[in-house]
Amino acid sequence: MDTRAAMERLGIDPAGYAPILAVSAREIDKRLELCRTALAQGNLADLALHAHTLKSTTSTIGAGQGAQYARSLEHAADAGKLDEAAAHLRDLEKELHEVAVCIQAALRQITTVKPAGPPLRS
Fold this sequence. Notes:
Protein name: Hpt domain-containing protein
GO molecular function, one term: protein kinase activity
Strand content: under 5%
Order of helices and strands: HHHHH
Keywords: Phosphoprotein
Pfam families: Hpt
Radius of gyration: 17 Å
Distance between the termini: 43 Å
Helix content: over 70%
InterPro entries: HPT_dom_sf, Sig_transdc_His_kin_Hpt_dom
Number of helices: 5
Structural class: mainly alpha
Shape: elongated
Number of domains: 1
CATH architecture: Up-down Bundle
Largest sheet: none
CATH superfamily: HPT domain
């Protein structure tokens, strides 16, 4: 996960990036569960929708590989290829597990590094 590139692209510092990471982690969990449900129900339209959201979310936070897997899942769902979509979802789940680890590490780092404040006046 390229957190530095994501912050540069978004034009924000770590303090601005932390809430985006936190919200993204929750969104990823939610959308991944919705993908599983849609696949189990054979609802490829919903699967494509949730994969598209995962693609956007992972891209925003700098998880390029996750975005690529989500894109592949979205394309398979749009093409009506259920078996292919299932395989892409398995790949995406594995990648998003790694992304979750990276998000937690980034959040720990951001919260332990405090920016220097203004000089103290006596």
